[in-house]
Amino acid sequence: MTFHFNLREIATASMVLFAVIDILGSIPIIIGLRKKVGHIQSEKASIVAACIMVAFLFLGEEILNLIGIDVNSFAVAGAFIIFFLAIEMILGITIYKDDEPESASIVPIAFPLIAGAGTLTSLLSLRAEYYVENIIVSIIINIIFVYLVLKSSVKLEKILGKGGVNVIRKVFGVILMAIAVKLFAANINELFNQ
User: Fold this and answer.
1) Peptide bond preceding 112: is omega within 30 degrees of 0, i.e. cis?
2) Per-residue DSSP letters for 145-162?
3) Nearest residue to 153 (alpha-carbon basis) of 54, 28, 53
4) What are phi and psi of 98, to 5 degrees?
5) Which residues lie closer than 8 Å to 128 by C-beta, 6 or more apart?
6) Which one of 19, 75, 98, 104 has the lowest number of neighbouring Cβ atoms within 10 Å?
């Protein structure tokens, strides 16, 4: 069994997941939850989110095959979702948002805040283009970052301020939009060549 570790793939996949998870943009929600329930289990939330993401990376394709959808079709659909997420981030509008969670247990933070529909769709879209081992490394990198943000969300909000968080969201929104276009272009050809 050979591994195909590639720094460029790891970097790109990490940036896609960072932008889709948008943990910095979720700081206000995390702070709101912390105020409501007092304590957030950062370790538990991070581990559960990582498990959901890795499980979906391996089982997502089997689930798709079961319902008769190929990875390229899913990647094109994923490109649309990533594109709309990017529009939300750049323009500061809300196209779709779940209701704010009631409690700070694993359910609202690990899923859907970290490992939500956008993240899971992105994982399968990335799998259509990149080696699995590079995606797993990028998941680990992102989960470490998520854990650090969850642990120090109050400090981060004070350091960045509302303006700082907005600038980061817009920059990653543009990167995410470019990646969505690339993902769409790469997979749409595969669909027509079948």
Assistant:
1) yes
2) HHHHHHHTHHHHHHHHHH
3) 28
4) -70, 160
5) 71, 72, 74, 75, 183, 186, 187
6) 98
